[in-house]
Amino acid sequence: MILVINSGSSSVKYKLFDTDGLTRLQAGKIERIGEPGSGVPDHEAALAQVAEETGMETGDLTAVGHRVVHGGPLFTEPVLIDDEVFKQLCDITPLAPLHNPANLAGIEVARRMRPDVPQVAVFDTAFHATMPAAARTYAIDAALAERYGVRRYGFHGTSTAYVWRVARGLIRRPDAKGIVLHLGNGASATAVHGDRCVDTSMGMTPLEGLVMGTRSGDVDPAVIFHLIRAGMSPDEVESMLEHRAGLLGLCGDNDMRAVVERAHAGDAEATLAYEVYCHRLRKYIGAYYALLGRVDGIVFTGGVGENSALVRRTVLSGLGALGVRLDPLRNAAADGARVVSTEDSAVTVMVVPTDEELEIAQETSALVERTFSG
Ligand SMILES: Nc1ncnc2c1ncn2[C@@H]1O[C@H](COP(=O)(O)OP(=O)(O)O)[C@@H](O)[C@H]1O
Ligand SMILES: CC(=O)OP(=O)(O)O
Ligand SMILES: [Mg+2]
């Protein structure tokens, strides 16, 4: 069996797969880690619960695959975790203080529980390693950027690689050009050509780009200094932009279902939040059109992308001039990976449910095979 662990800041998700064929055997989620009254004080306790639910401590495991959000400049492919790699992963933490510590906590506990089993790190940033320098580079003092590792990395790469592969199968065009919209709690847009990243909306950290559930996405950096001069500390501003911005900051709800419900009932704040969210998305799609020159496919994934026919309709409604024609019936249907544009649409619009854990299992299995079977 292959166990995949996605250890996030407030939840640990896991899936267990059969080693041959990667059939899913089990899936689970431990939530509200560290919240008062949740009974799960920390990641140690969450992993103990995963162990209990999966039989991880004694089970017949081929490998454990871990989601790691930030691979830094060093890791552009999945890697077997030994002491040296674990130390290098710890060194990346300053680049991703809000994401990597939880990933590392999961790795640490799993390695301690199963030192006999290969453990593999699979990075959100890896898919974007092909991003050209012009897209990767912030226009700031070059020497400073080099010294402090300030550049764009991009995230959601595991999800993007997975759904884009499925999408290229649907349009039967391996060298297709397209735009992948991963709209979950975090949200990102990625311009892709074949299996290469052309540009992506998240940057040095997963804060840049689209409007998200609780994250602002793009703001003028001067806003931050304005708020600091107004008396907020850097940590307070960071925490606000990460946890109390986005849909939540605009209207008090971070769940798109609640936002839409309130907007339908005439609530002005929820309506504006919805409009800001969709406006930003449309802007990125237009920008990526310009970068790609031609778009064969647009793919929606993540909780919002997969489930909200309304968001898909709103976002694409202004794009008729670019040859995008949504089929209202197909768009409203709800079943698995599918095309939702009309037959005569110049761009094939698709909905593809993501499966980051399956992609991590595949990468983990392939790396373990390459390493130990020769
Ligand atoms: N039917 C739906 N309509 C609109 N939004 C939905 C629907 N179902 C789920 N969502 C949104 O998906 C979000 C979660 O996305 P998901 O990709 O599952 O999260 P995560 O990033 O934690 O994996 C929720 O916050 C919710 O806003
Ligand atoms: C990198 C990132 O934003 O991940 P998530 O969407 O899981 O928060
Ligand atoms: Mg997600």
TrEMBL record:
Mg(2+). Can also accept Mn(2+). The keyword ATP-binding applies. Catalyzes the formation of acetyl phosphate from acetate and ATP. Can also catalyze the reverse reaction. Mg(2+) binds at residues 6, 356. Pathway: Metabolic intermediate biosynthesis; acetyl-CoA biosynthesis; acetyl-CoA from acetate: step 1/2. It comes from Sphaerisporangium rubeum. This is Acetate kinase. Gene3D superfamilies: 3.30.420.40. The gene is ackA. Homodimer. It comes from the Bacteria. The record marks 156, 215 as: Transition state stabilizer. Its main location: cytoplasm. Pfam families: Acetate_kinase. Its cofactor is Mg(2+); Mn(2+). Signal peptide: none annotated. Its EC number is 2.7.2.1.
